[in-house]
Each structure stands twice: as C-alpha cells, then as structure tokens.
Design brief:
By secondary structure, the protein is of the alpha+beta class. Helix content is 32%, strand content 26%. It has 2 domains: 255 residues, Alpha-beta prism (UDP-n-acetylglucosamine1-carboxyvinyl-transferase, Chain); 84 residues, RNA 3'-terminal phosphate cyclase, insert domain (Dihydrodipicolinate Reductase, domain 2, 2-Layer Sandwich), CATH 3.30.360.
C-alpha cells in the first residue's frame, strides 16, 4: 500500500484528488495522512468527501476515514473503473448544503472513467463558480479543448449556476471511453480574439452588463477583439462573476457584496493581459492540470507557462510517486517555466 503524506507541497485537496484518480486507474491502494494539513480547516471538507465517495463508487473501493474533518484516509480499489450513470451531490456530505466545487470532483472522476470500458454520464450538484477552484467555463472552454488534443472525448453542460456560499449548481458530464492517450504538440496561442461570460443570478441586469462593458473596453484598448456575453439567471442564491478565455488560458473574477462590477471585470482582464503578453503556451492552472494526461499519454508533452505554481510542483511529485514518470521542470516557483513530461503510455488493459 502506498503511504502518502498529505502535507507535502501545497498540502491541500489536490494531493487527495490526484491520488484518488491514480488509485482507481492503477488498482493500487493508498493511505493518505495529514489530509489538507496546510489549510485553515484541515481534513476532509464536503467537497473532498464527495470526491472520495464518487471515485470509490467508480472502482468499488473499500474506505476507512471517509468522514468530515478526517485527516487520514484509506482507499482500496476492488474493481477496475466502471462506466455507468452516476449522480453526486456535495450537499449529501454537508448538513444544510454546500457550495463545494463540482469542477474539482469532475477532475478526480474523469481519469478513471476515461479508461473505463463503457461510456459514463455524470451529474454533479454543488458549486459551479466558487473561489479557489476552476469555474465551469474554465473546464468547458479552456481545459477540455486541450484535453481533446490528447484524445479525450468528453462534454460538459451547465444546468444550473451555483455560487458560494449557497451552491445549488448542476453540471452534467458525458465521458467516452478510450484505451490510450497521445501526447499533443502544444503551441503559443496566436489570436487577438477573447471570449467570455459576465453572469449574475438573482441580481439586477445592469451588473453583468457593466462587467461585460468594462472588460470589452479594456480589451479593445489593449488591441484585442472581445466577445463577452452578459447573462442574468435565476439560482438558489445571489452571485456574480466574469470568466474570460482565449486558447490555452482562462481568467476568472468573482463578485462579492460591496465590490463594484467594474473592479470585478478589471481583475480578470489584468490576469488575461499578463498571460497574453508573456509569450508562454499555457496559463498557470493548465500547467498543473495537464500533468495527469501528459503523464498517462504515449509520447512526450512539452509546454511553457508564465507562472509555475506550488500546485504544479506538488502534482509533479505525486505523479512521480504513483507512476514513476519523468517530469522535468525548468523554472522557479512564481516564475516562467518549461515543463517536459515523458508519458508512461498507460492503457486500459494494464491491470489485466
């Protein structure tokens, strides 16, 4: 059994999610200690517990320590991942509901389900656009197009918006099975087109329009051609935010009470311009999120990023532990970096 120190690196939920995915894929059990040790509220929170139970359902895993606040987890897969129809709700793990990020649960599920023998249909309930996690539009508009280059066939649909702290969002994913992934050639994006959505629920219509207008004007001044859609929807609770994207980069700013709509837009634009002007291939979050498919793929994946994060460094260390994969990182934390991953050529029938 693999013993993993949950306090290593950035010491958050990513250590858990990556380990869940790879345990289900390889059939290798693990014990994770010091779970989320570097967080204000260490141990399993509703979002993390939902991810544990979701991946366990996919591979019939036996569990110990699957409880809120638990700082030790034992996860023992019993069968290879099974494609099926699944439904998971973060509120089931939290009294009174939760806005735990469904996008992070999707990230734990997609890799084992991708190598399952049949198609999967997954519905996730919780937060779709919440702090400290990729929003739905980042996955659908930025990450998925790059994953398609590896050979991933999956779709995502936003059925309901869910903001912090109420949640109530819903996302549906369809994941087609594959037997193997292949390393793509990633290049520096060459475009001046920027797309985006400025959205609110249960708030006045002028707010998304102001966010969209401010972002549009700033981007035009910087030489870009923006197409930003203002959206007003109903939801379980109020919320506001803007997501901007271009190939290989996505940038989010969420609103809060007392924060002017113009400032929300300005934050996202500032992030986008920093990436676009860097001449790098992928944004800082993709640099982390591409490591798992690159490690599993046949061939070598090479990309550059404008900022090397602790998340990326932690993920690289975990993948070396789990797969023995070669990951070379040329760069310092918070600086530009080049990442080269020599994939192990994982195939569905590896487990015999």
């Amino acid at each position: 059994m693999l013993i993993i120190d949950g306090s290593q690196g950035e010491g958050g939920g990513q250590v858990l999610r990556t380990s869940l995915s790879l345990a289900a894929l390889t059939g290798r059990p693990f014990t994770l200690t010091k779970l989320r040790a570097n967080r204000k509220q260490p141990g399993l929170r509703p979002q993390h517990l939902t991810a544990v139970r979701a991946v366990a359902a996919v591979c019939g895993a036996a569990l110990e320590g699957d409880a809120i606040h638990s700082q030790t987890l034992v996860f023992e897969p019993q069968v290879p991942p099974q494609g099926s129809t699944y439904r998971f709700d973060v509120a089931d793990a939290a009294q009174g509901g939760s806005a735990g990020a469904v996008t992070l649960i999707w990230q734990a599920l997609i890799w084992p389900l991708l190598f399952a023998p049949g198609k999967s249909h997954v519905t996730l309930h919780g937060g779709s656009h919440v702090p400290f996690s990729p929003p739905f539009h980042y996955l659908s508009q930025v990450l998925l197009p790059l994953l398609h280059q590896f050979g991933v066939e999956s779709t995502l649909e936003l059925n309901a918006w869910g903001w912090y702290p109420v949640g109530g969002g819903a996302v549906t994913a369809v994941i087609q099975p594959t037997s193997q992934l292949h390393a793509p050639t990633i290049t520096v994006p060459d475009t001046k087109s920027v797309n985006g959505v400025a959205a609110v629920t249960n708030l006045p219509a002028h707010i998304p329009q102001r966010m969209a207008n401010r972002a549009h004007n700033l981007l035009v001044d910087a030489g870009f051609v923006p197409n930003i859609e203002p959206v007003r929807q109903r939801g379980r609770g109020p919320g506001a935010g803007i997501v901007l994207w271009l190939p290989n980069g996505g940038f989010t700013s969420l609103g809060r009470q007392g924060l002017p709509a113009d400032q929300v837009a300005e934050t996202a634009v500032t992030q986008l311009l920093a990436f676009a002007r860097s001449g790098m291939m992928v944004d800082e979050h993709l640099a982390d999120q591409l490591m798992i498919p690159a490690a599993l793929a046949h061939g070598t994946t090479c990309y550059t990023t404008h900022r090397l994060t602790r998340h990326a460094l932690t993920n690289a260390d975990l993948l070396r532990q789990w797969l023995g994969v070669s990951i070379q990182i040329d760069g310092q934390p918070d600086q530009p970096a080049e990442i080269v991953v020599a994939g192990v050529g994982f195939q569905r029938d590896e487990r015999g």
